[in-house]
């Protein structure tokens, strides 16, 4: 049985993924740690109650070294030497810019980079010792095809340069981790979960959040060295030949 930790799981994709994981057989999935800056929310309380303690809320503000250390200690205490098997770096933020990129506010750019890249790095490095103890050694970074440099023209009219730049940065962070830890048996990959109806994706998005969560879960279950260093796209039947910005063909996304 594998222990999972998902960041930014108070809502959206992270919460949906935790809900699906908690429905898996206990022989497959052990504890599911869900982190958020604020875990005291009705949605988190509801999931914890329905899953009889299998989903464990962890207050984590990765900006605060004490909060990060306390989160690692709590998880270490609960897994009792078995370590953490799968880390899902899901917490993320998207901001909008009016007009051309010259209007991109430095504050937006810095904040987006900090949340989407720096916090992903801080969380990953803090949990590495527990991941080393785990059997699976999987790190999934929830990225986006809008951060693909190769698809820059495809998403030309998506007015979120801070998000695009930071997800491109997250992709390179993923490559760095995948190279540095492959000899230890780690599988570190980036995955684009599709355009999903969440607070971040908006009500007009292509897919219900559960569709993206099921696909991410499918990759998490299959993950091993074969996924190390890759940028994955989900597969949704019927969307294989959609325009490139909405294509979910299960093939690797271009960097
Ligand atoms: N939805 C889409 O269409 C889509 C498409 C491609 C990729 N993604 C990626 O999927 C991931 C989840 O997105 P979502 O759609 O589920 O978004 P969401 O519903 O807005 O949820 C975002 C989560 O990230 C957390 N978060 C945001 N800023 C944070 C910070 N500074 N520190 C810690 N936690 C922070 C939020 O926590 P709080 O509740 O504390 O704010 C929340 O739990 C993101 O990485 C996003 O980029 C989403």
UniProtKB/TrEMBL annotation:
Annotated GO molecular function terms are: oxidoreductase activity
The UniProt entry, under InterPro entries, shows: Fungal_SecMetab_SDRs, NAD(P)-bd_dom_sf, SDR_fam
Output a single Gene Ontology CC term carried by this record: cytoplasm
Provide the family line.
Answer: Belongs to the short-chain dehydrogenases/reductases (SDR) family.
This protein is called Short chain oxidoreductase
Q: Which organism is it from?
A: Aspergillus ustus
């Amino acid at each position: 049985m594998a222990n999972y930790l998902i960041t930014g799981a108070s809502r959206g994709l992270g919460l949906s993924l935790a809900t699906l994981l908690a429905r898996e057989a206990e022989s497959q999935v052990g504890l599911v740690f869900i982190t958020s800056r604020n875990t005291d929310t009705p949605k988190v309380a509801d999931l914890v109650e329905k899953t009889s303690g299998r989903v464990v809320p962890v207050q984590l503000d990765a900006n605060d070294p004490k909060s990060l250390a306390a989160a690692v200690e709590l998880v270490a205490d609960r897994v009792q030497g078995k370590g953490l098997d799968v880390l899902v770096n899901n917490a993320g933020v998207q901001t909008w810019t009016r007009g051309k990129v010259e209007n991109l506010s430095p504050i937006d750019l810095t904040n987006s980079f900090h949340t989407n890249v720096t916090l992903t790095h801080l969380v990953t490095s803090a949990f590495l010792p527990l991941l080393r103890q785990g059997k699976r050694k999987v790190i999934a970074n929830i990225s986006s095809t809008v951060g693909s440099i190769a698809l820059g023209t495809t998403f030309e009219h998506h007015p979120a340069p801070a998000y695009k730049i930071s997800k491109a940065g997250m992709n390179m962070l993923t490559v760095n981790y995948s190279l540095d830890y492959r000899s230890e048996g780690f599988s570190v990959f980036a995955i684009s979960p599709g355009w999903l109806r969440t607070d971040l994706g908006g009500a007009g998005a292509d897919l219900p959040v559960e569709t993206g969560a099921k696909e991410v879960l499918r990759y998490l279950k299959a993950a091993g060295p074969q996924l190390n260093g890759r940028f994955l796209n989900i597969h949704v039947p019927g969307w294989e030949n959609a325009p490139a910005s909405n294509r979910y063909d299960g093939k690797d996304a271009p960097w």
